[in-house]
Amino acid sequence: MTQDSTVQGTVAEGYEAVREEFAAFVAGEQPDYEGQLCAYVDGRRVVDLWAGEGVDAGSLYGVFSCTKGAAHLVTALLVQDGTLELDRKVTYYWPEFGVEGKSTLTLRDLLAHRAGLVGTDTGFSPAELADDRALAERLADQRPFWRPGSAFGYHALTMGALTGEVIRRATGHTVQELYEERVRAPYGLDFHLGLPASREPRFRPTQPMLPTPAQLAEAELRRTGPHTLPSIARNQHAPTPTDLESLPNDRAVRASGPASVGGVASARGLAGMYAAMISEVDEKAPLLKNDTLAEFGQPHSAGHDLVCRAHAVFGLGFECTAETWHPFLGAGTLGHCGAAGSQAFADPRSGLAYGYTRRRFAYPGGAAPENDRLAAAVHEAALKG
């Protein structure tokens, strides 16, 4: 293992280039940069790095939509168990869901962002955004924003609540409870859907974006009106519009861990969860069988995303990371990015599990641009090994 005086932490033999790539990136960033990078290959931790004043491997960050990866790992486990069936109608589990033209929607289409329930006509309150059951109750009564199953669009703030209500109806337990019991606690992961008060001192509040003048001008050109699908999906039309940048800084959100955006994690926690998904870790068999990985990781929705207004590719609850972000990764790579710039995924073909966190919100949201070079460096080292 080797160390660097600027970038702290360790890398395994053969991964020195990853540390160098991370150090080069950090050197070109703003002086207050904070971030962590972790990777496993075949269940062995090979990269464990961090940078920034006051940061260590145990520092915790809001990881926004990386939370969806944890929620849908639970979903995949329940499908694998036979508790959930992908081609059952949602109403089989959740009868109240079947109003306003939603009665024929299947669980498969729900997971593939095809429900048309990206928000509600009047938006959500801050208290509702911290409460998956409150969101689900509102969404059950909502008329979809497109005919369910006919198109897809990213359910940024609602996907975890929709999936979570199906899970609660089928099992009597919340996503958060099942994740804690079946995933987080057995592996000791620093990836929380509901951050205990005892771990609050390790949380590093998200810092706002610092866009350049050119980026501000670009954002202004892309700005949408309050009643467009992108704005509804971001809850910008609500009486109190959601400030996404500060969402995890609300203790109510961190404490409840809403399954769309409320997760708190370190890079170790992100990478460790995906490693446990695909590899033997701590003498435990992989959480998911190959057939389950293939089902959840293959493209189910590909093409024009009505919310993002761009090309996107989703599996079941997960992003298809190779098709969406990093084309050098293997077919069937599944994961999820987070709005502030975090990224996490598993590539079953190479055995690579990757996690990245950063404190300051990166422009323009989604996986931060540095993930391209960092993930490529880790992947190249893994192939050589």
Describe the structure.
The protein is of the alpha+beta class and 385 residues long. It has 15 helices and twelve strands. It is globular, with a radius of gyration of 19 Å. A seven-stranded antiparallel beta sheet has the order 1-3-2-12-11-10-9, sandwiched between helices. It has a three-stranded antiparallel beta sheet with strand order 4-6-5. It has a two-stranded antiparallel ribbon with strand order 7-8. α1 (16-27) runs antiparallel to α15, α2 packs parallel to α7 (159-171) and α2 packs across α8 (175-187).
- What spatial order of strands do you see in the largest sheet? 1-3-2-12-11-10-9
What assembly state would you assign to the polypeptide chains in this entry? single chain
Count of DSSP strands: 12
Mean pLDDT across the residues is 96
Tell me the distance between the termini.
15 Å
Name the beta content range: 5-15%
What is the global morphology?
globular
The chain-level structural class is alpha+beta
Biggest sheet statistics: 7 strands, antiparallel
Task: List low-confidence stretches.
Answer: none
> Treating each run of at least 4 consecutive H or I residues as one helix, how many helices?
15
The radius of gyration is 19 Å
Order of helices and strands: EHEEEHHHHHHHEHHHEHHEEEHEEEH
Classify the helix fraction into a percent range.
25-40%
